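Practice problem 4.
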């Protein structure tokens, strides 16, 4: 399955004690890599900063898995990388994506969100 084509991706990060924390996110793809974005202070960002080991798979809006979850590696992107992710999300999700990116920039400022690069194993 092409995970870049799904509407929602279940991104599962792990706490220090190994507890899984699944979160549905928008996803876009480019160059064989998946990209998502998040508020810079979100728990998933802190967990990825500690360990990039994640699981990913398709899900619905509420985070209910709709397919197989596969191991992947996630890393946080710098400012230009985050800008690229936001552009990919805006392009894929159309008007709703553009409004979400704009709203996020207005609420959180330029550095309030961070791009996430995800490579499946």
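Answer key:
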């Amino acid at each position: 399955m092409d995970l870049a084509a799904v509407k929602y991706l279940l991104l599962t990060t792990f706490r220090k004690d190994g507890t899984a924390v699944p979160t549905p996110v928008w996803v876009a793809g480019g160059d064989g890599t998946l990209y998502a974005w998040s508020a810079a202070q979100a728990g998933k960002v802190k967990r990825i900063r500690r360990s990039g080991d994640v699981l990913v798979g398709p899900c619905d809006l509420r985070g209910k898995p709709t397919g197989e979850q596969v191991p992947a590696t996630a890393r946080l992107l710098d400012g230009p990388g985050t800008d690229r992710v936001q552009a990919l999300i805006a392009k894929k999700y159309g008007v709703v994506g553009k409004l979400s990116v704009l709203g996020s920039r207005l609420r959180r400022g330029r550095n309030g969100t961070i791009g996430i690069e995800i490579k499946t194993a």
